[in-house]
Amino acid sequence: MVQDLSKPWPGRRRVAAIDIGTNSIHLLVAEVDLELRSFSVVLAEKATTRLGERDPVSGELSADAIERAFRTLRHDRDLALSHGVEQIVTAATSAVREAPNGRDFLVALQEKLDLDVDLVSGPEEARLIYLGVLSGMTLGDQPHLILDIGGGSTELVLADGGDARVLTSTRIGAVRLQREFCRQDPLPPAQQSFLKAYIQGSLDPAVAQARAAIKPGERPKMVATSGTAMALAALAAAEEERPPLKLQGYRLDKARIDQLLARLLQMGPEQRKALTAINDRRAEIIVPGALILQTAMEMLQVQELVVCDRALREGLIVDWMLRNQLLGDRFSFQSTIRERTVIHLAQSFGVDRSRADRVAAFALSLYDQTRGLLHEDGGEGRQLLWAAAQLHTCGKSINIAAYHKHTWYLIRHGELLGYSEMEHLMVAAIARYHRRGLPKKRHESWLVIEGRDQRRCVAAMGLLLRLAAALDRRPAAVIERITVAADRDAGPKEPPTGFTISLEESAELAADPQGDLSLECWSLLSCHAVVQEACGLELRVLGA
């Protein structure tokens, strides 16, 4: 039987990933095997769009660069859909992240191409690169230094097969350095020395962080990904008697890199473009990229690297599989990245974990019991609600007064790995609206939530968190169980007019002759007006 390539095999799912980088845009179409819990690449394409060639005065993405990107992304979208993908996961990195008009560019992509693009932070970019490498290499228990030299930033990761110890991103890249420092070509010796010193100074904090996390006796291996490393490997492999068919896993020692770079530094642009192992656009930026690689190896005292042809775009596929619970034990630790990063942030602000866990449990119970009553969420909001519940009191570390506003600020500017930028904003907003007034158009926390569906989710999850937080009135756990029932005055088939929340006291409270749930009932009933304003339903409370 001949397979229809526009559709996945039975038992498989197709997803596409688009990496909008500073130098190029990558498309990857992957087919996920549900039984093997792995994926294979159906299609991979790359277009050099140079979004990093920004306006020298304003720093904005130029009109020409935007036009190139739109043209490429329209093609990539159509191509991915023609292969029967169920979702296109898209991420933008440093060029869009840093440009003043970067957000306008993303809004235009959503409106004109129907592409929802996640604007990932530097550390999140590093995490996705790590996932991509992990999908293509067995790291085992040995620590590895993963270096990804992009067009606008360089990511350095210290990790093994179970965890990433260090995730860093530095604002140096091949396109950025070419644009800012390589005015003459070939580069004069004095400029070479200056650029080398600049790279060293820029990389120093990331290198120091990685070296500090290396345990005594450990000797990490280096893995290099993306364009610069692949280009240097291609140049070296082309000179071998029997060049390898693939560069994945190709080993390149420091001495060989030094030789290649010394030759490249002596060449003019046309001579580099004449090299058959690399394309013309890579030839334009290979020198600053190679200088970053050479300097990083010297600073990390590494004498050899192995090339990996998987990076951020494959990491997007792995992340999609993790979110959809399609991976096995090998990625079990990484699959808890969201939970761990939320707990870490909560701990950093002194949140009472036992009470946060209690509120989170109340919130999730309310979520599960009120589907179709207080919300129509498809499941995505549940994880965001849990995160917001864990963090909803972190603003108290600044000031108890109006702490919900401080909470929004701290979450908004904190680091939540594993969440897209919009999900990050939604977690912050859900926590913000767990008390006081409902969302208003003038609120910054509401204005940054741009999509109608996202706003609906924030409003619904915020209301659930408000009810859950109202039940947490004292340090001790006094509620054993909560039950929600819809109230229908006109019959079982009529729309509900309200709902009743019944509270069951804990065994400890029941054993106390003076104990009751009057405080919790009163607190819950204080939400009545807000519930009625938000969804037009009457709130009733029963306490055992």
Describe it:
The protein is α/β, with parallel strands linked by helices. Helices cover 47% and strands 17% of the residues. The protein has helices spanning 63-82, 94-98, 102-113, 122-136, 174-181, 189-212, 226-238, 254-266, 269-273, 280-300, 312-323, 337-348, 353-369, 380-391, 403-412, 421-432, 444-447, 452-470, 507-510, 518-525, 528-535; strands at 12-20, 24-33, 38-48, 88-92, 117-119, 144-149, 154-159, 164-170, 221-225, 251-253, 304-308, 479-487, 498-505, 538-543. Helix 7 packs across helix 10 (280-300) and helix 14 (380-391) crosses helix 16. It is elongated. The mean pLDDT is 91.
Shape: elongated
Distance from N terminus to C terminus (CA atoms, Å) equals 65 Å
| Percent in strands | 15-25%
Specify the structural class.
Answer: alpha/beta
Q: Could you give a short account of the major beta sheet?
A: 6 strands, mixed
The total beta strand count reads 14
Q: Any idea what the radius of gyration is?
A: 27 Å
- How many helices? The count is 21
The low-confidence runs, each spanning 5 or more residues with pLDDT under 50, are: none
Strand sequence of the main sheet, in spatial order? 8-7-6-9-11-10
Q: What share of the residues lie within helices? A: 40-55%
Mean pLDDT: 91
Question: What are the salient characteristics of this protein?
Answer:
elongated, 6-stranded mixed sheet, 544 residues, 5-stranded mixed sheet, 21 helices, 14 strands, single chain, alpha/beta, 47% helix
